[in-house]
Amino acid sequence: MNKTISKGVFYIGADDTNLDLFEGQYDLPAGISYNSYVITDDKVAILDTIDDRKSEEWWNNLAEVLGERKPDYLIVSHMEPDHSANVRRVVEEYPEIVIVLTAQALKLYNRFFGDDQDLTNRVKLVKDGDTLELGNRTLQFVTAPMVHWPEVMMSFEQSEGLLFSADAFGKFGALSYDDPEGWACEARRYYFNIVGKYGVQVQAVLKKLGGKQITKILPLHGPILEENLEYYINIYNTWSSYSPEDEGIFIAYCSLHGNTEKAALQLAEILKGMADVKVSVADLRRDDMAEAVEDAFRYDRMVLAAPTYDGGIMPIMADFLHHLSIKNFQNRKVAIIENGSWAPMAAKIMRTQLEAMKNITIVEPVVTVESTVKPATIEALKELAKNLI
Ligand code: FEO
User: Which of 96, 148, 161, 274 is 20 to 30 Å from 197 at the Cα level?
Assistant: First the structure.
């Protein structure tokens, strides 16, 4: 499948609808696309390759676009294997091709593919702001370190305003899947789980892109964005500044015998009865962890409910807190519900971990469920609900 994006600009990527876990950890209910592009001008440039799982399809797409021509440049935006798996083969297949990449990307190239090749005269190292003339079109490189690896760069095609944005603005879901939830839901889960830690670096690249007239965003995963680009850029600004996207309360709970669950669900009902407030609930034992991380960042308030276990907290809540911590969770109000039958410890542990994160306000009172939900527990939950609203 190749698709013309604009005169002399082609999509040559592929959908992967059989992969169940991206990076071995993120559920893919609707697959994912590995995007790759070709520009045919006086010179021919390939922008990234794709994952080895879809190599055959990619080589066929490339051959279809190239016809009799040979590529002059291979632009490497990102060395993660979902984009670079075919890079070495391209270099071998086309002895004249020049690889265009950052110095950091070259180091990673050697790590992944070995340093047994003579790349003299085969490599053009580029820095932020450098340009590459293709004929009518000129690419300007915009380095984007840590969005999502250190070597990442974007390419801005100047005549038409095409931004080849690497992983940024990507989304889970194959292109053949018409997502009924639109772009934001799976783009948000992708962003917070894959790039969430690097908000500062995303902010820096958004600043660099600020003055550019962008007409299309061409990411390495998910659909090409062509309309209302301000929406996508603004939402990336919200996400990367760790500001809540929506007002609402996200309740994340786990439970051993159902009593902590009862308290969490009871709080959800109390909140909904008290105010017209959006309440989203996740059972950490069964729901997708990446989705829970996404909702934690999406809303301005969160409630954690967990039982004490082995003198600590139930492991799935420890895992959730670990995910939040490594993704730089910050700037939120958080309430705590614990359960404990003889020596409740969960609240203390959750509070300590939350207080180690930046700008977290604990909403009082901490509610302790003593084994089961009792009238006194309900009163405490009502008090907490008032303070949350
Ligand atoms: Fe799609 Fe960071 O690779």
Answer: 161
Q: In which residue are the tokens 């592929």 written?
A: 14
Residues carrying CATH 3.40.50.360, the chain:
249-388
CA-CA distance, 156 to 112, in Å (whole number)?
A: 26
Of 35, 30, 4, which is closest to residue 18 (Cα–Cα)?
A: 30
- The pLDDT assigned to 1 comes to 56
Kindly report the number of other CB atoms within 10 A of residue 8's CB atom.
Answer: 17
The pLDDT value recorded for residue 2 is 63
Amino acid at 132: L
Calpha distance 288→173 (Å, rounded):
16
For 375, other C-beta atoms within 10 Å of its C-beta total 7
Q: How far is the CA of 172 from the centre of ligand 1 (A)?
A: 11
d(CA 51, ligand 1 centre) in Å: 10
Q: Which residues contact 180 (CB under 8 A, 6 or more apart)?
A: none
Give the mean pLDDT of 227-253.
98
Q: From ligand 1's centre to the CA of 134, what distance in Å? A: 26
User: Ligand 1: residues within 6 Å at CB?
Assistant: 78, 80, 82-83, 148, 167, 220-221
Q: How far is CA 231 from the centre of its chain?
A: 17
Task: Give the Å distance between the CA of 73 and the centre of ligand 1.
Answer: 21
Q: In a 3-state reduction of DSSP, which class is residue 166?
A: strand
The residue whose C-alpha atom lies closest to atom 3 belonging to ligand 1 is 80
CATH architecture of residue range(s) 3-240:
4-Layer Sandwich (3.60)
- The pLDDT score that the predictor gives to residue 121 is 85
The rounded Å distance from CA 167 to ligand 1 centre is 5
The CATH number of 249-388, from 3.20.20.70, 3.40.50.300, 3.40.50.360, 1.10.10.60, is 3.40.50.360
Q: What is the mean pLDDT of residues 200-216?
A: 97
In which residue are the tokens 């969005």 written? 147
Residue 255: its pLDDT value, please?
98
Can you tell me which atom of ligand 1 is nearest the CA of 149? 2
As a whole-number percent, the residues of the chain with pLDDT over 70 amount to 99
